Amino acid sequence: MNKIITVFVCIFWIVPNIQAQIDPSLLKDPTAHSKKDLLNMDAIYDRPFVTNKKAPVSLGGYVEANWQHIGTDGVSDGHQLQFRRMTLFVASSISKRIKFLSEIEFEPADKEIAIEFAAVDMEFNELFNLRGGMIINPIGAFNQNHDGPKWEFTDRPISSVAMLPATWSNAGFGIYGKKYNKNWMIGYEIYASSGFDNSIIENSENKTFLPAAKKNTERFEELPSGTPLYTTKVAVRHNKIGEIGLSYMGGIYNKWQDDGLVIDEKRSIHVFAVDFNTTLPKTNTFITTECAWVNVDVPKTYSEQFGNKQFGGFLDIVQPVVKRTIAGWKDAVINIAVRFEYVDWNKGQFIDTGSNIGDHLWSIMPAVSFRPNSQSVLRLNYRIQKQTDVLGNPPSNTAGFNFGLSTYF
According to a count of CB atoms within 10 Å of the terminal CB, is the N or C end of the chain lower? Predict the structure, then answer.
């Protein structure tokens, strides 16, 4: 870790006369007409970078820090101060229509350094471009558009981190493209990558749990199943209506053969997601939502607590209530917001009793946020959550406050 930190300190030290800008020309997608012509697939480049024409790279990043006081069924750990993460971006224009971007996340609480994205883009034309390296699988919208400063909530959506594997990235290759026609735009992405393994059903959670696969770093070098994970997404946007995206991710997850010898059945995973976002014109109300369906081929020898069908999603509503100069910040904004969440890790009924299987939760999180500028946010949230165990016993009740800040730098 010390060596990596030293490298980044040296980079910042040796780059002279640096000026900040939101869309550096060496990184800007030549097919994009303006800021409003961006899809969720553009989120990896739609970030503030520090750049200099004489420097070979552009730099950026964001940081998140929080305070929280949360309890479950009257039991609380008291006041907690958290430094969630610091993420660094390093980008470079290698030559005309060839560019590189990396996203490196530091999570000091877990003492982890994770490379979430590190890929080279080769742009042939607006409808056909090649991407290769460590890619972010575009399942839903949050997985690509996850930067903390863009959200009014301190916590990431539960369905994105505890049902889907948030910031899910893999070694892979793919193609992508976009097309514009007046107010309409359409984009697509198709990737073949490494992916899941048996840990999605063999984990400490004792249930079907896709995020467990993130701990397997060997996925960047080999595929247990020997077959790629395929991910595809199509998104359509109208400037006056909003953006809707449909995505799919699936493949074989288990090691079914060894040195040509068949040792198990092929077991598949299929994930479908739909996402939508819009801004209501008269009130500037921003609405974003995402839902996902997970189907996993679980061996029949496993107990019914391992679900083969899962469903989850969230809905965010953000309403600006004040926009004016506040404490010297011009065009500062105060928002009120609310997030609705639901996750069911095990849809269906017990075979013996016919009763519904539990293992689900719902949550409501009202929020107030203050944005001195578009790149920084202070946010206060209050979580109300009920979670039911697999047997359907009375739910545990969780409630409490979160306060935090997040900013690009």
Answer: N
Q: Quick check: helix, strand or coil at residue 112? A: strand
Q: pTM, whole model, 2 decimals?
A: 0.89
Q: Token pair of 202, please?
A: 């063999």
Question: What is the span of the domain harbouring residue 226?
Answer: 2-408
174 pLDDT above the threshold of 60: yes
How far, in Å, CA of 212 to CA of 202, rounded? 9
Residue 277 and residue 110: Cα distance in Å, rounded? 33
Instruction: Tell me whether residue 163 is exposed, middle or buried, using C-beta atoms within 10 angstroms of its C-beta: 0 to 12, 13 to 18, 19 or more.
Output: buried
So what's the pLDDT on residue 110?
A: 59
How many alpha carbons fall within 13 Å on the CB side of residue 50? 16
Token couple for 79: 């006041």
pLDDT in tens, 256-268: 998 889 999 999 9
> In Å, what is the CA distance from 125 to each residue of 30, 136, 163, 231, 235?
10, 21, 36, 21, 18
The four Cα atoms 148, 153, 154, 156 give a dihedral, to 10 degrees, of -70
Token look-up 């935090």 returns 404
**CATH no. for residue 362?**
2.40.160.10
Q: In the chain, how many domains are there?
A: 1
Write the DSSP symbol of residue 356.
Answer: B
**Contact (Cβ atoms closer than 8 angstroms) between residue 334 and residue 321:** yes
Handedness of CA 150, 156, 158, 161 (dihedral sign): positive
